[in-house]
Task: structure prediction
Amino acid sequence: MPETQQQNRKTKARKAMYRRLAIEAAERVFAAQGYAGTRMQDVAAEAGMALGTLYGICAGKEELYGAVHQQRGEQMLARAADTAAQASSPLEALRLGIRSYVAFLAEHPDYLRLHLQEDQPWALSPRFISETQRSQWRQGLALTVEVFRAGIADGSFVEEEPSHMARVMIAAHQVFLVEWLEDQKRQPVAALVERMIAFVERSFCR
Amino acid sequence: MPETQQQNRKTKARKAMYRRLAIEAAERVFAAQGYAGTRMQDVAAEAGMALGTLYGICAGKEELYGAVHQQRGEQMLARAADTAAQASSPLEALRLGIRSYVAFLAEHPDYLRLHLQEDQPWALSPRFISETQRSQWRQGLALTVEVFRAGIADGSFVEEEPSHMARVMIAAHQVFLVEWLEDQKRQPVAALVERMIAFVERSFCR
Amino acid sequence: MPETQQQNRKTKARKAMYRRLAIEAAERVFAAQGYAGTRMQDVAAEAGMALGTLYGICAGKEELYGAVHQQRGEQMLARAADTAAQASSPLEALRLGIRSYVAFLAEHPDYLRLHLQEDQPWALSPRFISETQRSQWRQGLALTVEVFRAGIADGSFVEEEPSHMARVMIAAHQVFLVEWLEDQKRQPVAALVERMIAFVERSFCR
Amino acid sequence: MPETQQQNRKTKARKAMYRRLAIEAAERVFAAQGYAGTRMQDVAAEAGMALGTLYGICAGKEELYGAVHQQRGEQMLARAADTAAQASSPLEALRLGIRSYVAFLAEHPDYLRLHLQEDQPWALSPRFISETQRSQWRQGLALTVEVFRAGIADGSFVEEEPSHMARVMIAAHQVFLVEWLEDQKRQPVAALVERMIAFVERSFCR
DNA sequence: GATGAATGAGCCTTCATTCAT
DNA sequence: GATGAATGAAGGCTCATTCAT
Result:
């Protein structure tokens, strides 16, 4: 039944679009009101859809919250990975990667707030993260880890557990980003990035 | 009326004891179930008292949560400050301070969990922080900042904004602590401390 | 979008109906159990709806209580005003008005009970009266006051502050109504009305 | 055992004193905060005694509330009765009685507020009235009723049910008293009394 | 499939009352 | 007898989720 198949395709496409819509709305509302302060009603309203529709798209509040992080995380990582792939050395890959993801966060202020509020890369059990999301997060982390591993191998980085280095780097970078926000983003992004890179080199390069 | 005075003293002492009991119970429950997942009923039960008694001791759920952080934070800071005071150089003060607060957290695993869950030194608006707590946090930060400032002055630290250095240090240390927990505390505390100190020296010493 | 408009109309109509249902249920429960003795749960049950639905309809217990008074008060006043408007003299207007509102109260025994319990025209600070209700009460009083004023002008009533006369009249009439209830409503409404009118004439006519 | 008897007497006397204290405190607090808004704790504090002591003195909140009314009611009636007893005619008795009880209320502003808030002489089921109080209230009413009955007999009053007349009179007088309060007591008590008497004569005298 | 009205479990908090000291 | 700390039942309200239209 090609007709049915086409319908399925259409249906799926529409569903995907609705989901994207919902997730983007959720990002805005969660960023503004926090997880506890956000009602599903608010998200539906922000997304311009009915509550029931929202529930047809996501499994519940927790899943939706996780999906926001997954969605943006995926995008952010993809961009960072693409950029870093063009590097000729692990150190350069790291520099390019940082530049890329800071640019991404600067372009997505709502996600930045969420990221700083709740995204604890060191968290014991990041709240509301499904298995799918967890595995995806691991993949993302793995990219950074790979860069560190290569850098250790070629002697440009200190010998430490790469995943540890990645987590420390992310944690420290959160401080830079918060201070940047507290300062009303007065510092140019390029300067911010340079300081973040400098920190990493000081902490991890030989 | 010395009788009344004595009674007041007794009453106050008892109240203080009850409050400590309640705060300790709250620490355990908040650590295990998180803020949102904790019912006041649970805390009362854990403290072995009736709900009404708990409410005679604290003003509400938020205040109680804040009190847990304040209580332990105060203790931790006092110990770290005392220890660091005996140092003969800024660098040694930092080392002693880190050793002290890690020891404290190792002795108070529930507070450690809370600390890692919610104590985000980089947070934009740390939830539920009363003015008392805020000032207390500032004092704590100030101590660390002072050490960094002295270290910059005597040339042992890089020239950076001291409060920035303090926040980065704390953020990075959280990663060490989480990994330590994830590893079931298999690493001896002394070794953990050494790695944390080594990181700070790498990141901030000339 | 005429569809949406129609839906809005439908929605509004339904909401209005539900609100009326809720208010009528509340009237019964408040009349039977008093304000303090009434739980919102009871009202919801009496109205045959869930608690959440009730809260979708009214803002809370106080607002609901006020709404009952407002609703019935409005109806009662409208009827009394309509009737009195047909009178050819102030005295006749008063007679018709009294006849009308007593008939209304006789038809709405639950509201009568509420009226006797709480509607104290002499109250210093009538509890729970929102601004809307206050203005409505003023309107009601104004109507009666107008009749008295006209009666004073044409010489049929004694010269007194009309609003005082209105309040005294209402207070005295409450006694008639309570006694009627205590007597199990054995006295015909028409006779009751005649006695109430006689009282007013004795007290206020020249 | 005369010793024990004396102790009992002392004990009783002390208890009676405490009870009076408590009732007076309760009067103030109930007048200021209303029945629902008053906590037993508040009354105890106002009376300068411990909560347990208060409960040794009265059976509970409702009983205490009733006791306030009973206490003052008794005093008020006693004075009114004494005064009225010196009258040479029913009409004069009524005049003297009114003068007396208005003076009493003017001297006890807290009781006046309570009286106007809650004392519904026409109420179907006056809240919280114990059997003792009910009988006392009947006695009080009986006095007034007796005056009316005598006045009907000697032809000075209209022929109506005396208890009805008494209740109507009280209800109407509440309006006078509320207006007097609303007017900040600007009107002299003597003038107020004259208007109240005038009303009664207009309504009930032949 | 979309809608949004309806649901009701759940939680924070208060305060009348009791009872060990 | 006086005390007041302790109790815990009770109730207003919210909001995630469902399901009839």
Notes: Residues 7, 11, 14-15, 18, 49-53, 56 of chain B lie near DNA strand F (CB under 10 Å from a C1'). Chain B has two domains: 1-59, 62-204. The radius of gyration of chain B is 19 Å. Residues 94 and 147 of chain B are 7 Å apart (CA to CA).
